[in-house]
Amino acid sequence: MLTQRDSQNRDEPGYRLIPVWTGEQIRAAEQPLLNVGEGEALMRRASWGLAAHILQILQAQRGSVYGATVVGLIGSGNNGGDGLYALAFLRRRGVDARAVLLRPTCHTQALAAFRQAGGKLQTTIDDGADLILDAVVGTGFSGSFDAPSLPQDSVVVACDLPSGVDAETGAVRGTAIRADHTVTFGGLKTGLLLGQGRAFSGVLHTVDIGLGAHLPEPTGYVMSELVDTLGTIGGAGMTTQAGVDNLLRFRPGDTQRIDHSSGSGGAARNLAGEAVPVLRRRGPDADAHKYSRGVLHLLVGSARYPGAAQLSVGAALATGVGMAQVQAPDAVAQAVVNHWPETVASNQAERAAAMVIGPGLGDDSQRLAQAEALLQQSRRNAVPCVLDASALALITPKLLADPGYAGSLGKHTVLTPHTGEAQKLAERLGDLQLQDALAEQKVLAAAPRLAQLTGAVVVLKGPVTVIATPGDEPPLLHTEPAPGLATAGTGDVLAGIIGALLATQEESARYCAALGVALHAAAARRLDPRGHGRYGASALLRVLAD
């Protein structure tokens, strides 16, 4: 687990780490309870939590619950049973609850409860329904799904996960039901965060159904910016059943905020009952000076790519560092100093607390030779280092076999490839497992594999960015959208941010890499809250220090 230091800057943005499991892990955690006859209790907890969230959504949508029309699309398995029980609860609250059975059979006891509550069966989906409940198939489904047509104006809520979405990978084979909200049981599932699952899941809410003691080590953790959600849909201020409404909220592709507040006034806890760790940038000590705060040495830029040097150095300065040193060709270094006069041009890195190597080097053989020498110095002295862009080409089987590396770049080193660069690395290293994972877009498998092969922390950049270590620590996922970052130079900015954090935070490379990714995306969202993408990388520097 990540370490955490107290921060003097309590107004600094913080990021909680929320555990994520695969659908298979959640099903395995349910099994001990099923074995002792608690299956019906699990279903009742799930359906009650589902109904509670639907009531909140209806209240926010209509201003009242009574008389709202909710139509459930019901499948044959437990997912359909959850839906029918939820509809029965809703009917008792004055909701006009209706069900369309999409399979010849369904959960017998749940159907009886639905009918007893006064629910109605029908064969078509009402165009005027206020809300459609998707309870067709759940986490055990595999194969191709044919999604029915739904009314455009109805809010769609998925039971556990949208029908047609793979609970592990987020893949959609065939078609899937696109939800505005997904109420998921037992814990966040990887398929709701990855692949097409992100686009189909809408706002996520979790319901604690009592699996805590049986949950295994999470597959990963998703980073969530701390927000005040009291009074919002799913917020802690609206919790009505203790132990059920541990709520998470985010909208993939939109705000993607997550609320993991317990509503108790104490530290937030995850569904396994553990305190949720928080990532937060630490400000300089009161008695710090420029050297004690941390010197960052940046080997960046070339005659072909002089702007990369300005972006990386500017990002480091805006993030906060004791001193930024730039090692670049004379003309490039002079341009950086002219733009950022506090920067020192230097080819000596002896005082460096951290290094950034790679942005803007291109294929300049002299610059790459300098990069390799600096990387050797970093490895020899265990100086934290970001290896980005062109410098990733230095990683070869020959380099890793060198006695100075002993097969590992070291956990103080952070690699920041996008998937294309990672694919080239996989080919150079000759690793078919990594190549296959990248080809199949299995980023949760690819990032840890690359970390294992290189012995470094890996930041695999993409729509979902994954931070992985060569050890057994679960990977971290950053899912909050910032589509405008898909433009030239933003990787140079990220390298400068992570480098500054490595130099100043006295935390692990994993911690600094994850925090850097979050700060990078947060700056993009402040600059471009609607995701129009009408900015260049240099615009990020204006908001990074905010």
Summary tags:
546 residues; alpha/beta; 13-stranded mixed β-sheet; seven-stranded parallel β-sheet; 16 helices
Molecular structure report:
The protein is 34% helix and 16% strand. Strands 1, 8, 10, 11, 12, 13, 14, 15, 16, 17, 18, 19 and 20 form a 13-stranded mixed β-sheet that branches. Strands 4-3-2-5-6-7-9 form a seven-stranded parallel β-sheet, covered by helices on one side. It has 546 residues and is of the alpha/beta class. The protein has 16 helices and 20 strands. The chain starts with 13 loop residues before the first strand and ends with a helix.
Write a brief structural summary.
By secondary structure, the protein is α/β, with parallel strands linked by helices. The chain has helices at residues 23-35, 39-62, 78-92, 108-116, 197-201, 290-293, 306-319, 330-339, 365-381, 397-401, 419-429, 432-439, 443-454, 490-504, 509-527, 540-544, and strands at 14-21, 69-74, 96-101, 120-122, 131-135, 155-159, 181-185, 188-189, 203-207, 220-225, 278-280, 295-299, 323-327, 344-345, 354-357, 385-387, 413-415, 457-460, 465-468, 476-478.
